[in-house]
Amino acid sequence: MHSLGILLSGRGSNFVAIADSIDAGRIPDAKISVVISNKPDAPGVEAARQRGLTALVIPSKGRSREGHDREVVAALKQHDVDLVCLAGYMRLLSPWFVQQFPHRILNIHPSLLPAFPGLEAQEQAVAYGVKVSGCTVHFVDEELDHGAIIVQRAVPVFNFDDEHYLADRILKQEHIAYTEAINIVLRGNYEMVGRRLRMKKIKKK
Ligand code: GAR
Predict the structure, then answer these.
(1) Alpha carbon separation from 161 to 75, 128, 171 (Å, rounded)
(2) In terms of DSSP bridges, do strands 190-193 and 149-156 run parallel, antiparallel, or are they unpaired?
(3) Domain-embedded: residue 122
(4) Residues 30, 73, 45, 38, CA torsion sign
(5) What is the pTM of this model?
(6) 164 is catalytic
(7) Which protein residues are within 6 Å of ligand 1, measured from CB?
(8) Is the pLDDT of residue 140 over 90?
(9) CATH at 79
(10) Phi-psi map region of 192: left, alpha, beta (phi>0 left; psi -120 to 50 alpha)
(11) Do 22 and 86 lie in a common domain?
């Protein structure tokens, strides 16, 4: 049984989508062992508790990055987490944190990376005038929104779009993409060639 740890800072809709996928059997052999928020008032914390999951608040405000990260990693290890999913976790991880879970930390970002990293990706996409945007699930490395890409899903940008309409449509794809990416990583039937994740062919018996 795989043990997932979810880190979030806000609404938590990606967390809820992952939890729904597990409950519906779309992510087999996995459970969410702990949900951790760095923001005391994150609605995702309440959503986790309502589902009967362990949800911890480890506030980051006023803390050094490494001091906070050490507390978060200790909680993840205490709950035997083997896959960390950042789901709207609006905080950069220290290199030390990343090294604790090699190729075992995923992030979701609301653009087709490497376009529009950082904050307000949907607003950046509308302002730039791209005709296609989307979402990316990637491994977390030491740089912001940078690690190897696992899944991307594209979304058209329409003439009438503003960042809110676009964000809503991207979010629907995020909820599908995260489940796909978790399954790829947990099954492990891929190889890394440089930055490229290549799916291995499943041999027929
Ligand atoms: C999502 O759109 C996610 O892609 C984005 O924050 C939102 C969280 O929503 N993450 C980032 O921008 C990270 N760089 P949620 O709390 O409803 O899952």
Answers:
(1) 41, 13, 14
(2) unpaired
(3) yes
(4) negative
(5) 0.96
(6) no
(7) 8, 10-14, 44, 87-88, 108-110, 121, 145, 171, 174
(8) yes
(9) 3.40.50.170
(10) beta
(11) yes
In this prediction, residue 201 carries a pLDDT of 78
Tokens 């629907």 — which residue?
A: 172
Mutate to test the pocket of ligand 1, among 8, 15, 108 (most ligand atoms within 8 A of CB): 108
Domain that residue 123 falls in: 108-174
Hey, what are 14's tokens?
A: 């990606």
Tell me, yes or no, whether 11 and 71 share the same domain.
yes
Residues belonging to the chain: 205
Residue 124 in 3-state DSSP?
helix
pLDDT tens-digit readout, 89-119: 999 999 999 999 999 999 999 999 999 999 9
DSSP, res 81: -
**Which one is catalytic: 2, 68, 79, 109?**
109
